[in-house]
Amino acid sequence: MLLVLTACTTLEPTWIESPACANEPYAWSDDLASWVSQGDGQGAFSVDPPGDAATSVDGAYDYSTGDFAWTRSYGEDYWQTRVEVQSGVGTVFHNGDLSVEYVTVTTDRLDETWQEGWRVERVECAQEWWVWDATSDAPTYSHYQGAWSADVFEWAGLDELEGRSGTRAPDGSGTLHDESGKDEQDFTFRADGTSLREFDLSDTNYTYRGSDETAWNGDVTQQYTILDGKQELCEVEAEFQYDGDGTATYDCDGEVFTCEYDVRAGDCTYSCDDGSEGDC
Which among 25, 41, 138, 227 could bridge 207 via Cys, Cβ 3.0 to 4.6 Å? Predict the structure, then answer.
């Protein structure tokens, strides 16, 4: 797939005239059209985005060239610190439609970064977009589509992502359902920046069924059951820091032991008070 966008010229004013989507989600759509329409009338903007996690989106859109860039900043001790948009080009139409392409550079609280390419097309209330690894010479494109209603954005994955779907609400909250084969996960993303995951996952030996909570700073608390078929083998309670270090307590038919997990430069090892140890 070749994703190349040619800049189109847009004209002032910056507000959205004759909205293409009758549901008018532009005040909370959390995208370039929303921010430009709330800007200074010359293309610059400084916006308080939906939800509690992000504190500001600051940037500018050049009407004559279609070039744009912005930085999204997050609250103190949040697991992300910022997302910078680079190499943005495209068109914000006066009716709220979008045709844009850009690269995001995300930095987390460990100062690790990753890059993604984005192509977004919105016509009336329908939206289609692609996401890929911007550092890859031969990236795989994740393809999605969705639709805006008055109070929710509903979306679904296409092609190999047909088992993935979700929602986003005006307050920044949302959901994600991800199903592949026997594996199933449901995420609830709260407006306060925390999230819940409920999962039913399997490997070649066991099934893992339970939930985990992700805190503001990215730390995770887990509770789940390990099953062999329908037989429950162990109950597990675990706490992991955002860097991967953590502790898990296993109750396996009355035999209780605790394991410490240590993560360094991507390598994970564990040691348990029952004498077992090894690589994660």
Answer: 227
- In sequence order, what E strands does the chain have? 44-47, 54-61, 67-74, 80-92, 98-108, 113-123, 126-133, 142-148, 153-157, 164-168, 174-180, 183-189, 195-202, 207-214, 220-228, 231-240, 246-252, 255-264, 267-272, 277-279
Q: Is the peptide bond before 13 cis (omega within 30 degrees of 0)?
A: yes
pLDDT over 50 at 11, yes or no: no
Q: Which amino acid type is present at position 41?
A: G
Please report, as a single letter, which amino acid is at residue 143: H
User: Phi-psi category of 111—alpha, beta or left, where left has phi over 0 and alpha has psi -120 to 50?
Assistant: left
The predicted model scores a pTM of: 0.90
Q: To 5 degrees, how large is the angle CA 227–CA 232–CA 233?
A: 80
For the chain, which residues make up each domain, given as ranges? 1-161
Altogether, the residues listed in the chain come to a count of: 280
Taking alpha carbons only, the member of 100, 74, 76, 97 closest to residue 86 is 100
